[in-house]
Amino acid sequence: MRLTLLLCAVCCVLVVTAHRYDPDWKSLDARPLPKWFDDAKFGVFVHWGVFSVPAFGSEWFWWYWQGEFDPAYIAFMLKNYPPGFTYAEFAPQFNAQFFQPDEWAELFEASGAKYVVFTTKHHEGFTNWGSPTSWNWNSVDNGPHRDLVGELGSAIRKRSLHYGLYHSLYEWFNPLYLKDKESGFKTQEFVNSKTLPELVDLVKRYKPELIWSDGDWEATDTYWNSTEFLAWLYNDSPVKDVIVVNDRWGSGTACKHGGYYNCADKFTPSTMPNHKWEKCVSVDKLSWGYRRNMKLSDVMDLPSIIKDLVFTVALGGNYLLNVGPTSDGMIPTVFEERLRGIGAWLKVNGEAIYATAPWRVQSENATVPVWYTSKGSTVYAIFHTRPMQYSFQLSTPVTLDSTVVTLLGNSESLKWAPLHSSGLMMVLPVLPCTAAEAWVIKLDGVM
Ligand SMILES: *[C@@H]1O[C@H](CO)[C@@H](O)[C@H](O)[C@H]1NC(C)=O
Ligand SMILES: *[C@@H]1O[C@H](CO)[C@@H](O)[C@H](O)[C@H]1NC(C)=O
């Protein structure tokens, strides 16, 4: 008995020791990804900031206007604002008058999303919480005079969604950053007095389950102290066991180091990556932030979104879909409609998405093209084209006598017969009309 206890104590000490991470990629990259992330599959991304006030072009407004001197942005300012108007003057108009975090959280939950990633600070540097190192360039001292990160977080958690924080490492026009940049990133004044204190503040205050890092690409991970930060995050932070991070931690780290991989925005691999990944896209195809000059033809339709979600999950990815709220805190109704449409489809077909794993084959061109996902010996065949006939053929699954075939949303099991070596033929019922234009055949007990 005593010996057992002693052995246990020794083991525990060993286990605890073994789980400390060193501040280098070899050690950090070996950390297993907390399981909640792979199970979640679908998240909502929200880009909100001072850029939502001019709401023209994209969330890169300030950069196009005064970094690149894009003529379209210069003309927009000349035409609509007094001479000498500065970007900082947009901030007081970021009023968030109609921002009801509970309404947003209700919508995100209704979309079927299991996590939400919110911009705490985009490249403009404006923080959506009262960062003590932000001077007055933050949402508590300026603009809405509210803790947007905190308010949304509480509402999200009441509905048991996971809360993720987007954070831009660089700030286009921050004088401290520009000074470090001028030194060839040999000095780290900006990192030590702004970036790291803010990241640590965010983690301690809001206990996020995901950090979506961005804006890393002009400097190396050494400049950003990324490995030191991640080692703290994984070893000693209040979220060390649940936190998930992406891969944007310094030039050259994307698709290579960190937690899961985003690679590039809207990353669309042609074969299954061998590392957990996430595809981020925006319902407005031309912008992540809200823009008033958005047209219906710029907006993803529901069938395309579902198709993209299914493709991503079949290849082992998560799907992070972005919406940009207006500066007064409304989620444009066209985005709301898309989100509720996804939720309606997932309500019937979600078992083919959540907590699934890629199957041994990702897709085939059967009677119509199908994408596969799986859960143990259950395989889901998802298709987006209404077949011309009721007989439907799949050539990859290997059936047993006990195999049961159903169409999700339809309680009757389907009549089927095996084909010669592998595959089966079944008779489909009348497919329901759905705005999502996607249906799922569930195959129980196949190989
Ligand atoms: C950043 O890294 C440098 C070099 O490793 C170290 O001297 C410095 O203390 C680190 N800063 C922080 C805030 O961790
Ligand atoms: C199915 O057909 C499409 C278009 O014809 C093609 O791009 C795709 O590679 C095919 N998929 C498989 C698994 O053969």
Q: Explain this structure to me?
A:
There is one protein chain. The protein has 447 residues and is of the alpha/beta class. The protein has two domains: 21-352, TIM Barrel; 363-446, Sandwich (Immunoglobulin-like). It contains 13 helices and 15 strands. The chain has a seven-stranded parallel β-sheet with strand order 5-4-3-2-1-7-6. It has a five-stranded antiparallel β-sheet with strand order 8-9-10-15-12, with helices on one face. It has a three-stranded antiparallel β-sheet with strand order 11-14-13, with no helix packed on it. Helix 6 (101-110) packs across helix 7 (148-158). The two termini are 46 Å apart. Mean pLDDT is 95; it is low at 1-7 and 9-13. The structure holds 2-acetamido-2-deoxy-beta-D-glucopyranose (2 copies). One 2-acetamido-2-deoxy-beta-D-glucopyranose binds next to strand 8. Alpha-L-fucosidase is responsible for hydrolyzing the alpha-1,6-linked fucose joined to the reducing-end N-acetylglucosamine of the carbohydrate moieties of glycoproteins. Belongs to the glycosyl hydrolase 29 family.
